[in-house]
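Kindly go through the following sequence and its backbone structure tokens. Advise at your convenience whether the structure tokens fit the sequence:

___
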Amino acid sequence: MTDPGPGGTVGATGPQGVTGPQGIAGATGPQGVTGPTGPAVPGATGATGPIGVSGAGGGVTGPTGATGPQGPTGVTGPSGAIGVTGPAGAQGATGAQGLQGAPGAPGVQGPQGAQGAQGAQGPQGIQGPQGPAGASVGTWFCSPIALNAGQTAYFWGAYNWSSTVESYAQMPMPVGGVLDNFWITVKVAQPATGSLVTAVRVNGADTAITVTVPAGGAGNFTDQVHAVAVNQGDMVCVRLTNNATSGVAYGNVFYSLRMR
């Protein structure tokens, strides 16, 4: 063996050599002791990952998680198309009658319909009570007369009957009423020497109902202005006085008086 010489200076490190092939893995060492659990500090929630591929069925369903808080109401979507009308439901019960509305305006009158056949006569109704007595209307007439000049006579409602005594000509009124519408007609002219005066008298006195035929007058004369009320039992007659100084008031002289 050659004797080495004294050690020289260490040279520079050479370049690393090529890595050799991996050696055989050694046996796994025993598991170390589990360390104590650290404090639970929740981290920020990460973004939801993509849904994984569904695994094979048959796994045990885990417990239902707690319901999360309700999210905000979403925007109302557009209305969908109107669906087909369903079948009509059964008719409901009739409701209570509402208040009567205001009457409407009368409609235009329609044309008159054809007259129907006459119906059978109904039974006679019950006789009603007797109505009040109606007004009675009567008329007196007298004709002719003949009065001498200056003569006065009294007449009543009978044909050609007179008297110079008033009580003989008075007629009692069977009912009360009103005397009016006095007329006298002179067919032969009154003598020219005086007038013919007539008056309706009640109970021996002249009333306002009077008619004067002037001297020489002829024709119709009337008092339709005055009226006199009479009672049942009043004595009534008509007075005629010929004021002519000569000549006779004679001929077709008529008078009429209405009783109502």
